[in-house]
């Protein structure tokens, strides 16, 4: 009886493993529930590995089925966990991608030093190029553009504003100019810049800047794709589920509805982004917050024909979303095949709800 239960459980896990891999190929607008299995892929793959070892130890025939399934799923496993030891390269172009969550403008962390800590981190890392998502600057307390330019030495920058607001100060005759959006800061000269249209949403865009690096042009794309927009109540519901507590169907249905809309929107944005990036034939890098996991239609669509810095040189899970689970990588750095990835690492300091990615690379040798 125990052996029969084992076989049934093992087969169910293998079916889940195959179905989760299919999430990369099935458009969410056609069948969106597969994207949930894509999110669960790290845990399903972990169970498959456990069944592999148990079946090997018990010398069961299903061991070979487990081995074949893991072999077929290996390319997807490798996007989730990388087995490089990881080493920091000092030579090359150093680029950082960081969703800074408005530099903690609304004090979500409960620590007024968060913005200063982010700036200290940037000073310590001293990347040549920084791609910010959820960037914020103003003319009052958060003079981030001014600080990055004058104090940290990033003389070249381009900001794509998604929201612009003039807010009254204490002195009524003056206002505080507040700006939100995407931004690229560089020690290299920006010779051209623009916007890639990926949909109607002002909050979710893709910008690019052409940088002159040692006499050559390098195009840097910076994007922020559709978020699920979970509220505090939604996170409480997820916490209840993770602790095996009961919750109302209404709350769960609300979360599922948001996820359905977000996955469909990201799929559309991903196709537009991949088409636009594919048309540019020079050296290019794509940084951004995809708001999706590696085993997803979004990532699979955008990364087609590009190299993933984490897959090439990362170590461990490379989780970039600051959650207790610690396995979700939703921030990415992709390059064209001609660019050499020298190192890639994630800095696990919780100063935002995302961790920064830092990659060192070198451009292809000119013929």
Question: Can you walk me through this structure?
Answer:
- The protein is of the alpha+beta class.
- It folds into two domains: 2-80; 93-362, 4-Layer Sandwich (Deoxyribonuclease I, Chain A), CATH 3.60.10.
- Helix content is 37%, strand content 26%.
- The protein has helices at 2-22, 34-39, 41-57, 62-80, 114-125, 144-150, 232-242, 249-279, 297-302, 309-313; strands spanning 82-83, 93-99, 129-138, 156-168, 175-186, 189-196, 206-213, 216-224, 284-289, 307-308, 315-316, 331-335, 340-346, 357-362.
- It has a six-stranded mixed β-sheet with strand order 4-5-3-2-14-13. Strands 6-7-8-9-12-10 form a six-stranded mixed β-sheet.
- α1 (2-22) packs parallel to α4, α3 (41-57) runs antiparallel to α4 (62-80) and α7 (232-242) crosses α8 (249-279).
- It is globular and about 75 Å long.
- The N and C termini lie far apart (67 Å).
Key structural traits:
367 residues; alpha+beta; Deoxyribonuclease I, Chain A; 2 domains; 6-stranded mixed beta sheet; 10 helices; 14 strands
Number of strands: 14
Which CATH first-tier class of the largest domain would you pick? Answer: Alpha Beta
Order of strands, widest sheet? 4-5-3-2-14-13
CATH architectural name of the largest domain: 4-Layer Sandwich
Q: Tally the helices.
A: 10
Cα distance, first to last residue?
67 Å
CATH names the topology of the largest domain as Deoxyribonuclease I, Chain A
Helix/strand order: HHHHEEHEHEEEEEHHEHEHEEEE
CATH superfamily of the largest domain: Endonuclease/exonuclease/phosphatase
Global structural class? alpha+beta
The helix content, as a percent range, equals: 25-40%
Instruction: Please tell me the overall pLDDT.
Output: 87
Strand count, sense and closure of the main sheet?
6 strands, mixed
What would the principal axes of the Cα set say about the shape? globular
Summed up, the domain count is 2
């Amino acid at each position: 009886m125990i052996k029969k239960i084992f076989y049934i459980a093992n087969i169910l896990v293998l079916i889940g493993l195959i179905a989760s891999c299919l999430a990369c190929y099935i458009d969410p607008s056609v069948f969106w529930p597969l994207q949930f299995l894509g999110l669960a892929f790290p845990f399903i793959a972990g169970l498959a590995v456990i069944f592999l070892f148990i079946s090997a130890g018990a010398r069961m025939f299903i061991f070979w089925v487990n081995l074949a399934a893991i072999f077929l799923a290996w390319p997807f496993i490798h996007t989730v966990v990388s087995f490089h030891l990881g080493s920091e390269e000092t030579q090359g172009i150093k680029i950082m991608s960081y969703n800074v969550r408005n530099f903690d403008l609304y004090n979500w962390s409960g620590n007024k030093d968060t913005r200063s800590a982010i700036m200290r981190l940037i000073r310590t890392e001293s990347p040549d190029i920084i791609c910010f998502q959820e960037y914020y600057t103003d003319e009052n307390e958060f003079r981030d553009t001014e600080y990055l330019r004058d104090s940290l030495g990033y003389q070249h920058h381009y900001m794509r504003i998604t929201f612009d607001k003039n807010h009254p100060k204490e002195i009524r005759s003056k206002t505080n100019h507040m700006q939100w959006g995407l931004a690229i800061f560089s020690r290299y000269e920006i010779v051209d810049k623009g916007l890639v249209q990926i949909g109607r949403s002002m909050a979710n865009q893709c910008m690019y800047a052409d940088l002159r690096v040692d006499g050559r042009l390098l195009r840097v794309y910076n994007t922020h794709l559709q978020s699920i927009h979970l509220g505090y109540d939604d996170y409480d519901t997820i916490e209840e589920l993770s602790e095996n507590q009961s919750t109302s169907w209404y709350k769960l249905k609300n979360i599922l509805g948001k996820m359905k809309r977000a996955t469909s929107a990201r799929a559309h944005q991903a196709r537009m982004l991949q088409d636009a990036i594919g048309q540019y034939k020079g050296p290019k890098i794509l940084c951004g917050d995809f708001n999706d996991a590696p085993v997803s239609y979004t990532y699979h669509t955008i990364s087609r024909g590009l190299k993933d810095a984490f897959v090439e040189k990362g170590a461990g899970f490379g989780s970039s979303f600051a959650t207790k689970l610690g396995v979700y990588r939703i921030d990415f750095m992709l390059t064209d095949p001609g660019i050499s990835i020298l190192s890639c690492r994630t800095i696990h300091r919780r100063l935002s709800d995302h961790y920064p990615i830092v990659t060192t690379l070198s451009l292809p040798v000119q013929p």
